Amino acid sequence: MTPALMKVYTSKLCTTMHTPEFEFLSGAETQYYESPQRLDAILAYLETHSDSFEITERVEDFGYEPIQRVHKQDFLDYLETAYEEWIQEGGHPNGVLPATIPHHKVTRLGKAKASNLLSKAGEYCFDLSAVITKDTFKAAWNAAQITLTATKDLVRLGAEYEQSLASGAQSRENPPGLYALVRPPGHHAQSDICGGYCFLNNVAIAAQWIIDQPELKGRDGQPKKIAIVDVDFHHGNGTQEIFYSVSNPLYTSMHSADDYPYFTGSALEKGEGEGLGFNVNIPLHHATTDDDYVEILDKLILDHVMPYQPDYVIVSLGVDTFKDDPIAGFLVTSEGYPRIGNSIRKIGVPTLFVQEGGYCVEKLGINVGGMLQGFLGKK
Ligand code: OKP
Ligand code: ZN
């Protein structure tokens, strides 16, 4: 039986908060590509495909704790207070950006500590895209709470799915899927540094929340196992860092070998300590086509995701792999996304999709919607 609908979790606040006027791209001042229009475009597609999607604006408040489990307190305090201090110190109203970033060639001898905001900004931000505005912390908080609301329902639907599998009423072919349509995105945000349009790591917060639920145990009494599949064009350095030394969740990523964030994403980064072997990077050539992408994804699933035997899959859903993406892009077409969704469905595990990148606003709806419909077996 095909699940009729995928539930979509979002809120108006995702489009009204955190709207920097501009960013710097290749040294030039440009529009802020991580815009509210992205979310509007996706929502418009989902609304006109009501046979596939059911949109809810219900958001539960999970409070501060799930966020503190992933991010360091000094970083969270910084995010919350940075803008006000920035303005007091004469910063541009567009928002906070670092004046200097502690470079290892400088810090080797320099032992001075960051004191004022202009110096602190570099401690907590690694590039010029993560502009902190007056309501950025609230916006990121809101995105995390929406993602957690969806995660709680994932767990509930997962339990129902397991029961119907056990009673033979259901085969592994149509696992439940949910979608958190949020911004700002999260996968570049590390435990104590923002960057790449990301402030709080929504996917990491969701995964850690599942692991932390005392009543949620697998058959061996251990926490439920989560596999993260990051299909955004860019490497999720944040998610990798947060879980680098643990074996749950498994982090897997397919991304451009020679693009942003440049200094992470090598296949040699495999995790450390207990986490060794539970971080899988697959760097890809910029000329990757639909066929290439799906073939490599299927192999990643077969070689790494299936043997891990996850209870849940969380997808970092980026469609900046699209051939016409203005700041990124492989050669993936709108026909490719349903195939990607279909490959993820075949894992046979309850799946939460969380929105990350994708900047070709005109095609965002069909590309994101297509992946989700592919997962539903509807395309
Ligand atoms: C966020 B997500 C590269 C410019 C990079 C920041 C990109 C952040 C991407 N030419 N600017 O992973 O989609
Ligand atoms: Zn991206």
Structure description:
The protein is an alpha/beta fold. It has 2 domains: 6-61 and 134-375, Arginase, Chain A, CATH 3.40.800; 73-123, no CATH class. The protein is built from 12 helices and 10 strands. It has helices spanning 13-16, 36-47, 65-68, 73-88, 104-107, 117-123, 136-166, 202-212, 237-242, 290-308, 336-345, 361-375, and strands at residues 6-9, 22-25, 28-31, 53-56, 177-180, 226-230, 250-256, 279-284, 312-317, 351-355. The strands form 2 sheets. It has an 8-stranded parallel sheet with strand order 4-1-5-10-9-6-7-8, sandwiched between helices. Helix 11 (336-345) links the parallel strand 9 (312-317) and strand 10 (351-355). Helix 7 packs across helix 8 (202-212) and helix 10 (290-308) packs parallel to helix 11 (336-345). The longest helix has 31 residues, at 136-166. The two termini are 15 Å apart. It binds {5-[(3-aminopropyl)amino]pentyl}boronic acid and zinc ion. The site of {5-[(3-aminopropyl)amino]pentyl}boronic acid has 15 residues, from loops.
Summarize this structure as a short list of keywords or feature phrases:
379 residues, alpha/beta, Arginase, Chain A, 2 domains, eight-stranded parallel sheet, two-stranded antiparallel ribbon, 12 helices, 10 strands, 37% helix, binds {5-[(3-aminopropyl)amino]pentyl}boronic acid, binds zinc ion
